[in-house]
Amino acid sequence: MMPWNRNNRPKPEPPVELLTPQALIGLLAALVLAVGPHARELPVWLTALFAAVAGWRGFIVIRNQALPPRWLLLILATLAGAGVLLEYRTLLGREAGVALLTAMTACKLLETRSLRDGVVLVFLGYLLVMSNLLHSQDIPMVAYLLVVIVAMLAAQVMIHRQHAGLTALAPLWLAGRMLLLAIPVMLILFVLFPRIPGPLWGLPKDAHEGRTGLSEEMAPGTISALGQSDEVAFRVRFTSAIPPPNQRYWRGPVLWNFDGRRWTRIEELPSNVPAPFTPEGAAVEYTVILEPSNRRWLLALDLPASLPPRTSMTASFQLLRNQPVNEVYRYEMRSYPHYRTGDLTAAERTHGLQLPSRTNPRTRTLAAAWRQRDAQPEALVNTALALFREQAFYYTLTPPLLMSRDSVDDFLFRTRQGFCEHYASAFVFLMRAAGVPARVVTGYQGGERNELGGYFIIRQADAHAWAEVWLEGRGWVRIDPTAAVAPSRIQEGLYAALPDSGALPFLLRRGGNSEWLRQLALSWDSFNIVWNEWVLAYGPDRQKEFLSGLGFGAVDWGEMTVAMITALSGLGLAYAALRWRRRYARDPVVRAWQRFCVRLARRGLVREADEGPLAFVERVTHCRPDLAQPAGEIGRLYAALRYGPTISPAAVRQLQQLVRRFRA
């Protein structure tokens, strides 16, 4: 048995420091602000749960009620976790992760009472703030989140200084100052921190889901559905002559395979050099600012002749990035609107003539009749375009459904109402049935010029599909059957091609009483492109381009790291010097003593850095006995004011007068 020792007695636990009602209310308000934007994405029941818990916790604080028992918290946490699991079928990923974080924050609120609990909630709040950026990085959202960060910092100040007697606005004032002081550091890190291709950390697999836009397949209705969206797909700045509308075809996925209803891509081995072709005429140079799409392919004007960094090109002239575009991506391009491509390979001929067996018999019969009449590919192309141009075909955003397996027959001989995908699909089928190699190209066409910023906006509603046929001596030639039915769609845009533009989204309409609102939206977009180019699209290529423009030359990671550390060190030293100078500039005692020391230094009596005032005066007296009386009086008075318990205003004025009269 161990002998008794009073050192073995259990030590009493330190007292728990409780949060004040003011600190709890401030923290609760900051958390509500952080969760607010998530309400658009969270399930209704979870938003209602958080609101109810926040209201309950506020009631407990105001009425000084007891916290709920732990068994009730355990039940609530279990039900909330199970609800998230049932809602998303997982607890991982962006949506489920944010929902679980919100639910656990609500549960933590109901047990928070100590300073430690408050600190935990503050950091949960910062996580909620950052997770908002997984859904939106627009200017309004970032501005709102800065306000939330100030509120969260203020709550943190109130927690750690809750007994300092701060006024209601003092924590907000201090948090605002902290944020302003952090801005120079943030700018240095943003500009100089070495960027790498891809994120520094892994994001959930669903972090980039929910993106609208083109897909890698096309079926009736897939592109017409995008005609209802005024979301921006990408923006373009031309640095050379602007091509006319009928040459502004932005090339995306090239579709070869057809199963009777859907067009899909084939697997093509991309190359690190542009696919060969013969350019004719001048090149067009431009910069694309592409919105996130969660796709690998990039958009380029027909026909691309350059490759952005870390990008390859297929034989179908489709640009493929090494990784999906999950951030605003800026790249420079060069294209040739007029061109001739090379010879047709055996694989291209096979894919370009492939048709599903025993489908669309009426269309096959029609194509065979055309071929018997004139088998020249050019004549067959003109005959098909004449069919769309001269007969009763209609261009509409809401075509009838094509439910039959013979969808092309259904369109050509029954409904005759369609969007661009209907006409491109039917045209390519007709060409293949007539023996002409053809393929579908999807992308965007046209775009709206923003005069304020001097750039073009291409929206999701500008999504388009057209055809390419292979002609001897010319190679792959673009043919747009939509232009035969609705030429105004190509020249003026979607709004001009539809009889009822009122069905279009607001930003796609023209004229009317609300035109001024549309112009206001374009003005706002001109700010957005600056934000996109210099903030969201500030990747490794943009960083090197920017720093090279500042005279850094060819920069690498090592140089950027040295520059960043130097800039941060210089900023820290400058701030410390400024604080020191302000500190002593505001002290009249120190100011008077410094003037006294300067006057003696001019006579060769320099005070050493480690020399106190009395020791310095003693040395002055030894070297200059004639200054013993005034120097001794100044030194003793300064020491009393600088190191004494109190400072008398009369004594300060006496010291200033003695220094003014002093002559070395």
TrEMBL record:
It holds the Pfam family TgpA_N. The keyword Cell membrane does not apply. Residues 412-483 form the Transglutaminase-like domain. It comes from the Bacteria. Keywords: Membrane, Transmembrane, Transmembrane helix. The chain crosses the membrane at residues 44-62, 69-86, 118-135, 141-159, 171-193, 557-578. This is Transglutaminase-like enzyme, predicted cysteine protease. It comes from Candidatus Contendobacter odensis Run_B_J11.
